[in-house]
Amino acid sequence: MAFPAHTQSLADGFVTALRTATRLKAYATEIRDFSEVEYTSANQIIQLYARLVEAKVLFASVADLPGIAAYAQEQLGDDQLDIAAEFLAMTAQIENCRQWVLSNFPNYNGYILKDTLDSTGIVVRNFSPAELSSLRTVLDTLITTID
Questions:
Q1: Per-block mean pLDDT, blocks of 10 residues, the chain (147 long)
Q2: Is 104 within 8 Å of 134 (Cβ atoms)?
Q3: Which residues are CB-contacts of 34 (< 8 A; sequence separation ≥ 6)?
Q4: Residue ranges covered by each domain of the chain
Q5: Between β-strands 121-124 and 126-127, what pairing exists: parallel, antiparallel or unpaired?
Q6: pTM higher than 0.70, yes or no?
Q7: What is the CA radius of gyration of the chain?
Q8: HSE of 124, CA atoms in CB hemisphere, 13 A
């Protein structure tokens, strides 16, 4: 029999989910605050998208761990907490943010229009605070789902 390295424990899954949620909230807050007052590089929006996708995949794998809801309640010391509902609310908002990027990032036939070429080299697209106002709205909602 081989060593079961693919098996994730409840403790590991729970801690990983907590850390990922904390980091995602911090990054979403950073993007939200920065984009309100400065032009935001397309690279930052792509990075946000990548983090949203990574978090969504990770949270799906943790949600599939048998007994994770009861374990989370025990670890948080709150048997009244509907951890499944809170988790679903957070992951729904992650998806809303991801969909915002898909719907609003300039593209042509699915290829993102992020850079231009000129005589000085590659110029990365920047978005104005006004262009990202609706992104801030969905980020605000995501941020409120993570305590």
A1: 69 94 98 98 98 96 90 90 89 98 96 95 97 98 96
A2: yes
A3: 40, 44
A4: 10-144
A5: unpaired
A6: yes
A7: 18
A8: 10
pLDDT confidence of residue 122: 96
Q: What is the DSSP letter of 105?
A: S
Residue (of 30, 16, 31, 94) closest to 61 by Cα position: 16
Which residue's entry shows tokens 């929006």?
A: 45
Look at residues 44, 40, 22, 46 and name the one whose alpha carbon lies nearest to residue 133. 40
pLDDT of residue 84: 85
User: What is the distance between the alpha carbons of residues 27 and 7, in angstroms, rounded to a whole number?
Assistant: 29
Residue type, 110: G
Residue type for 24, please? L
Instruction: List the one residue out of 27, 32, 29, 61 whose CA is nearest residue 47.
Output: 27
Which tokens sit at 105?
A: 């990032």
Residue 8 DSSP label: -
Report residue 132 as tokens.
Answer: 């990202």
Alpha-carbon span 54 to 50, nearest angstrom: 6
Contact 127, 39 (CB under 8 A): yes
Tokens found for residue 86: 């809170």
Calpha distance 147→135 (Å, rounded):
20
